[in-house]
Amino acid sequence: MTVETTPKYTRLELCHRFVSSVRHSVELGIDVIDAQESGVRAQMPWQERLVGNPDTGVLHGGAVFAFLDQVGGLAAAVRIYPAFEITPTIDFRLDHLRAPAAKAAIICWAECYRLTEHVAFVRVTAYEKGKENDPIATGLATYMRMKIPSGKYFNKVST
Amino acid sequence: MSEALKTLIAACRNGEQPYQALVERVPYAQFLGIGIEARGEELSFVLPKADTNMGNPTLPALHGGAVAGFMEQAALIFLLLKMGEPRLPKTIDFTIDYLRAGLLRDTFAECRVTRLGRRVGNVHIEAWQTRRDEPIAIARAHFLLSEEGG
To answer: Looking at the domain A11-154, which fold is it?
Structure first.
């Protein structure tokens, strides 16, 4: 059952609280820049330890995947807002259009283009900072809606 | 592909170097903590339980992205070793189905090359925790097998 109450936090605050509760996303350095009903924009800085090819310094596809999967989940969360639900990934397809430049921060824009009672349909686009029209990767994902009270989730998390 | 990597692959095949050396040269694989166990040339991949790979803190569960990154890296190494004359695989696409919650415990991956063409390799990957026949995720990926400078 979803409890509709006056939200105690904005969409952006919800995203920040959520990301800070997820240890792996904190390790990836994910920072949510903007969160609207229409979608979420977030950044992941380049980190030496996330490199996949030590000869070129290019980020590992897996690190890009984890980043996009997280932001895709947030795109579902901002559509579900002000209610709060956990949205585990059902499936995710990621196309690597080209290799990102070494040492470049990656930006992800994710939007939930269809929300049904049980499933959120999401598409994501990733690009290097300042190169929005030349994406490095695009993805398509579905997330399952699991309705739990937000207090039950966040109260267990020290933020 | 660098000469250093070619030399390393040859050394692993000769038994002069452990296969683990292949993940030690990849910073992201070390970040996740990936391990490789080899029986002859049969490899199994393990993602040991680590708090840094945690997603949902209430279960607690592994981050789906960490599981996917682990599976992609396993497929990359598996494919690299399947080729007689190794070429560096580059991920074209990666598609994953999550079947069960990945709990905060050791995770294993197994790979199968579905098709190894001249330019593209197709790999199927399964990840499991408690039982091999109860995978937590299955994935398939296409890799571009580039020539030098490609």
So the answer is: Thiol Ester Dehydrase; Chain A (3.10.129)
